[in-house]
Amino acid sequence: MAFGVLLAPRISQAQTNAPTGNVQVAVTDLTNRVWDLDRVINGVGFSVTNKNDATVDVDYALNLIQTGSGSLKTAGDTNETTVHLTINGTNAPDFTGKFHASGSITSNKGKGHGTFTSTVTGLALIVKPRHVTATESIVFSFDNIANTTTLTKRDSASASGLGSIRGDPQVKTGTLTTEFPGDGSWTLALVGLTTSGKNITGTAATVTLSTGQVFNFKVKGLFKTTDSTSRLLLASSDTASRGSSLTVTMAGNTVMGIKGRITGQSVNVSF
Tell me: the pLDDT tens digits for 56-73? Predict the structure, then answer.
């Protein structure tokens, strides 16, 4: 009896250090910035001129989503868009085109790169109906700590019976927080944490980017009674978040570290 009485307070004290309830932490350091490009890429517009000074201007809107894996893809069920076309300064009638857009973003230790390509095709009235194709391709790199970005853009267009036109590569450098939306900060929220013995579960977890984009996770983990620390594994809980995953270390309800990938970008945070 006495032996059991001595042990009881010790077990109770250990369990009081297990995570419980709701926990939220903001990540603002520069190295672990996470970016959301679908909020800044909402259309394509370019002007391309060949060596004979023939000029074609193309402009159209598009809707993208950035997935949990960091891929950019068409949002919704339709890829139709209205294309505005100008040839040598003269507006051609707008036409309905179909676009295919794709891209990606990735980073590690505060440095990253990515791509974006969009091609639109359709039937345009240029004296007579002609099949038109226009493509924009972008390759970019960025440095979270230096707050810089560099992109190289290539544009081309063609029309049946009129040939094709391709512009020279355009290189642009800029400030990261000016070119990308938001400031790269993000917030982790753990909801409904409960501990039963060594097993930890949670109702949900979310990562909210500075743009408002939210990624959703399911929670499970283990509580170590030897040092009263916890290790939570966060796996994506919906299709849009698939590809993102995190490991969270905690002492009680205090987050000590976050490691993993959020929408293609690696994070390794210590508090």
Answer: 999 999 989 999 999 998
Residue extents of the structural domains in the chain: 18-34+183-270, 37-179
Residue labelled with tokens 């743009």: 211
Q: Answer whether 92's CB lies under 8 Å from 85's CB.
A: yes
- Three-class DSSP labels, the chain: CHHHHHHHHHHHHHHCCCCCEEEEEEECCCCCCCCCHHHCCCEEEEEEECCCCCEEEEEEECCEEECCCCEEEECCCCCEEEEEEEECCEEEEEEEEEEEEEEEEEEECCEEEEEEEEEEEEEEEECEEEEEEEEEEEEEEEECCCCEEEEEEEEEEEECCCEEEECCCEEEEEEHHHHCCCCCCEEEEEEEEEEECCEEEEEEEEEEECCCCEEEEEEEEEEECCCCEEEEEEEECCHHHCCCEEEEEEECCEEEEEEEEECCEEEEEEC
What pLDDT does residue 8 have?
Answer: 42
Q: How far is CA 38 from CA 68, 171, 183, 212, in A?
A: 12, 21, 14, 12
Contact partners, residue 25, CB within 8 Å, separation at least 6 = 187, 188, 255, 258, 271
CA 85/CA 120 separation, integer angstroms: 12
Q: Looking at the DSSP assignment, which residues form a beta bridge with residue 266?
A: 261
Low-confidence ranges of the chain (pLDDT < 50): 1-14
List C-alpha distances in Å: 115 to 10, 19, 105, 271: 55, 40, 7, 32
Tokens 């977890």 label which residue? 205
Q: Tokens 């976050």 appear where?
A: 258
